[in-house]
């Protein structure tokens, strides 16, 4: 006996519906377009500002190391030739005055790496505490 079905006959689907594929690709494209500018910008960090600064006792005269924007280092307004000389001068000053306080005043445009090198040289010379000179915000 031959059994035949009546009605529409279903055949295998021979083509792919690209509409869902295009929808997913457009969503991915929008995500990448939104996130790509964030990768180049990085993070924006607001550094804290000093509202009040504690004063120094009048009888203590600290050593002030100044790092200028051109990379020149000076100690108490006397120029020093490089980081190695800075370390020697600070070490010698500490031998004369063990209670010496050292402050670093670095121009805000100086590269952070150079500031870290100067701080490391001062620490290597034997300074335990290093103060950073800041300015009060202008009103």
TrEMBL record:
Keywords: Cell inner membrane, Cell membrane, Membrane, Protein transport, Transmembrane, Transmembrane helix, Transport. It is found in: Cell inner membrane; Cell membrane. The keyword DNA damage does not apply. It comes from the Bacteria. GO terms for cellular component: plasma membrane. Coiled coil: none annotated. It is a single-pass type II membrane protein. It holds the Pfam family ExbD. This is Protein TolR. It comes from Pelovirga terrestris.
């Amino acid at each position: 006996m031959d059994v035949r079905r009546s009605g529409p006959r279903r055949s295998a689907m021979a083509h792919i519906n690209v509409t869902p594929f295009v929808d997913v690709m457009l969503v991915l494209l929008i995500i990448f377009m939104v996130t790509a500018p964030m990768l180049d910008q990085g993070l924006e960090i607001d550094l804290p500002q000093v509202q009040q600064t504690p004063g120094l006792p009048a009888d203590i005269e600290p050593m002030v190391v100044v790092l200028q924007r051109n990379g020149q280092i000076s100690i108490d307004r006397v120029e020093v030739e490089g980081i190695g000389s800075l370390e020697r001068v600070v070490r010698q000053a500490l031998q004369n005055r063990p209670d010496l306080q050292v402050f670093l005043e670095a121009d805000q445009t100086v590269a952070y790496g150079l500031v870290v090198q100067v701080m490391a040289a001062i620490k290597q010379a034997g300074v335990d505490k290093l103060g950073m000179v800041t300015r009060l915000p202008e009103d």
